[in-house]
Amino acid sequence: MDMDKHVVVVTRVSERHWHALDDDQVIGRGEGTRRPDGRMFLSVDAWDGAVFAQLAAAMLTDLPRPLYTVVDEADLDLLISWERIGFGPRRREWEYVMPTDPQLTGLGKTPPPPDVTIAAADEEPLRELDRVIRDEVEATVGWQNMPAEVLWPPLDPARYTVAVHAGDYVGLVRVAPLPRQPRIGLIAVRDGLRRRGIARALLAEVLGATHRRGIETASADVNQANGAAIALFESVGARRAGSNLELVLR
To answer: How is residue 11 annotated by DSSP?
Structure first.
């Protein structure tokens, strides 16, 4: 399409959606998503760079700053498009892929500590643990620095495995059961009970269960600054498969 011969009009079609129209045909879309932590993340779907720029300019005019977006670091064209309108890097998330076979992970004999058991989750105690862990994270690194995958999804107990100590939930791991490659969205242990092997035992449980279903690999996203999580995943043979950049415009 020769954009020089057409007038592209950008219209805000709802509170958080924009369309780029050429002769009443939609040739690009923009969307703003308000995450539960209050931040607004933008996305633009337009194959033409000029249309991308028009959509983005309209969104920046309509929305208060700061604004955020997430870009696959390998997508240089998209990264450059956001940088041209003023977005800059805030943090990086590594995507890790790991084997599930206990013979490859070394997790075949990884029991929890003697006073801890690994179990399926029940909703009410899971909600309490979820609240406590979020408060602990917010008081330290801040929840805004957690990977995008862990930001307040629906709390479905079927996706969680938990660690239980003295009758209380003290650790959890959540797995999104994607058909080809399940994704570990969050693994966390309460303050005061870390460095006892609980996170490793939780990981052993979910990777072992995944392997028994005939699935060879799982994935996880990890903040580049989270050294403990990186060490845990790399210790079971995880390798970096890609990275995402979170960009911000202040």
So the answer is: E
Three-class secondary structure of residue 186 per DSSP: strand
Burial class (CB in 10 A: 0-12, 13-18, 19+), 184: buried
- Amino acid in the structure at residue 78: L
* Both tokens assigned to 111: 């029991």
Here the tokens at position 141 are 């690194």
Assign 111 to helix, strand or coil.
coil
**95-242 has which CATH code?**
3.40.630.30
Spelled out in words, what is the top-level CATH class assigned to the domain 3-93? alpha beta
Give span(s): CATH 3.40.630.30, the chain: 3-93, 95-242
73 with 243: CB under 8 angstroms? yes
Which are the contacts of 149, defined by CB distance < 8 A and separation ≥ 6? 176, 183, 185, 186, 221
98-144 confidence digits (pLDDT tens): 999 999 999 998 999 999 999 999 999 999 998 999 888 888 766 66
Q: How does pLDDT run across 32-60, given as a tens digit for each residue?
A: 998 877 899 999 999 899 999 999 999 99
